[in-house]
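Researcher: Re-running this chain for the archive, since the previous output was lost when a drive failed. Same request as before.
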Amino acid sequence: MTPAQRNGLIWFAEREPVGWFDETAPGHRMRSTLQKKGWIKRLPIKDALVVKYVVTPEGREMMKS
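Model: Regenerated structure tokens:
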């Protein structure tokens, strides 16, 4: 895990479920990387029209190492 990936995971963990992104947020490329690695996931869209992300159990393990 790179330092940038760790910072991205921490950002998501501190704000989850994340549906809105500001200037402090990881960029689209980082979000895609974290999702492809299985460290964050999209929640199913129910009533809201906003896609929300949470850190997966695997992502939480990665933050410990």
